[in-house]
Structure formats: C-alpha cells, structure tokens
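Re-running the complex after MR caught last week's input typo. The corrected sequence lines follow. Everything else is unchanged.
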Amino acid sequence: NAGVTQTPKFQVLKTGQSMTLQCAQDMNHEYMSWYRQDPGMGLRLIHYSVGAGITDQGEVPNGYNVSRSTTEDFPLRLLSAAPSQTSVYFCASSPGVNNEQFFGPGTRLTVL
Amino acid sequence: AQKVTQAQTEISVVEKEDVTLDCVYETRDTTYYLFWYKQPPSGELVFLIRRNSFDEQNEISGRYSWNFQKSTSSFNFTITASQVVDSAVYFCALSERTTDSWGKLQFGAGTQVVVTP
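Corrected-run output:
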C-alpha cells in the first residue's frame, strides 16, 4: 500500500494564481482531511470529508475549496492564492473520525 | 478558543535524561479522544497513541509513557532515557463528539524536543 500520497511536494505560486493540491489514499478510508501547518500554530484543519460526496469546513476554510467524488481522492483547491496561504499542507485519512489519522508527506507551498 | 494547550514551546535535554511534555485540553464532552503525534525533522507526522475519555489507565510503550488525568484535563507524555532520535516536535490533539466539533481533530501548537548527545 502506498498509504496517503500528496502531489506536488513543493510549489511556488504568484499572488492570484489558482492551483490544486492532490491527495490520494489506497486504504479505503472514509475520513479524509486537509491541514495547514504554520510555525508556532500546530496543524489547523482546513476542510474534511466523512465520505464520498460529503465535505465540511474546518477551522480555516477561507480561500480553499474541496470536493470528494471518490473514496480515494480529496483534492484541495486554492482559488486565488495569497501570501497568507504560504504554508505546509498535509492531507490525512482515517478509518473513522476518531481513529488514528495517517498523514501524507506534505506539500510546501510558497505564494509570492 | 484554543482547546489544546501545550505550554512548553521547546525543551532541551541531554541524552539519557527523562523529558515530560505537558498537554492540557478543554472540553465539555464526556466522550472524547486524545492523541499524540510526533514530527521528526524529516517532516512526516507519526501517530503515537490514542486514548478515549473512559480509559484513564496510564500506558507505557517502551521508553514512552502517557499519564491521562481527567481531573486536571491533562494528557502528559514522558520519554524516559531520551535519545537523539527523540528530537522532534510532538503534538497533542483532541477529538470531540459535540455537534460543532464532530469530525474535527484539534491540535496543540506542539513542543519541540531537542536531545543533545
């Protein structure tokens, strides 16, 4: 099993550009989530999904969109990148809401 | 409001010393889950433990041990006889069952542990 994969690993964007961070898991997990990690702030939840077709907002959803058309994939879209979105983004999956989460390797995004 | 507080930003120890990381949480739920994750310098996040609110037994796994005390809303983590490989950022996290918080894992800010030889 590949576990949770994320692409790309690094990305540089200009302010106003849009892009999609990809996340996929091969463990048939129902629960998937996106976090951003900023220095001194831990991980903050952006969006999450409890199953295909179901998504909800986390703590810091503004500026991001998600969809979940399949169990395996949970892409995160930045609509119009801003410097405040410079961060490391982690995708995670889990068998259920209260179970151990398996994290992807992260995507380091810089917005100039 | 911050629901998980890790007051220690950084702890530096010399190898073989014990180190205790504090985690204080806030919830009104009677059913909740607490987690610890490790983030080594390579950046990945590694699951260490999950504890539900009904199980207050302390747990030991090798050099790691956890002390869960509902009376003080704390879930502290101790590394015994620390090693250089223990150098990492450690995160405590909370998952609640309330309607507003259901589905949301809430992390503390993390504690950086630096173990020097």
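None of the earlier attempt is carried over here. The two ends of chain A are 36 Å apart (CA to CA). Chain A has a mean pLDDT of 95.
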